[in-house]
Amino acid sequence: MTTLDSNAALIIIDMQKGMLSPQLGRRNNLGAELRIGQLLSGWRASNRPVVHVRHISRAPGSVFWPGQAGCEFQEALAPLAHEHVQEKNVPDAFAATGLERWLRVRGIRQLVMVGVITNNSLEATARSGGNLGFDVIVPPDTTYTYDQADLNGRVWPAEDVHALSLSNLAMDYARVIEASDLLKAI
């Protein structure tokens, strides 16, 4: 059975309106937002800390370019006034931000990471969290990715990219545990 620390933090990564842009292509795991919302409700009901990570792009034309709608949080997953918001400019939410310090000052050692993109910001942040000594948990049903072309031009289905990214994380960086098991542990 999965156990959660009483102060385990839910880290919601890049759940912004820009992720809904058709320009990003076909994605997997269409129920991810629903499961993220269920975890968010459980975290709030148990008074555990929630961190909302927002990507602020430095690249004009990005779905996360400042000042446009894509940069805003999706309404159903928007932070409450007392929840921490961490902005970042690169995929890793620990790189050049105060996230590690914010967690350590509060004695938080267990992190449940959800959001997007599985093989980009979620994986980068989970890898750093694991390397920094945090107990990182990634529910596979709370993240998604898009079809992706490799360097030879072959397009890999989002389901395969997602599965490989989670397998990479499970090797050394994080535990991969379904959201339903985490909800039972709250």
UniProtKB/TrEMBL annotation:
Entries under SUPFAM superfamilies matching the protein: Isochorismatase-like hydrolases (SSF52499)
Pfam families named among the record's database cross-references: Isochorismatase
Residues covered by the Isochorismatase-like domain: 8-177
GO molecular function, one term: hydrolase activity
Keyword Hydrolase appears in the UniProt entry: yes
Key word Disulfide bond present: no
Keywords annotated in UniProt: Hydrolase
Domain of life: Bacteria
The protein, known as: Cysteine hydrolase
Organism from which the protein derives: Pseudomonas fontis
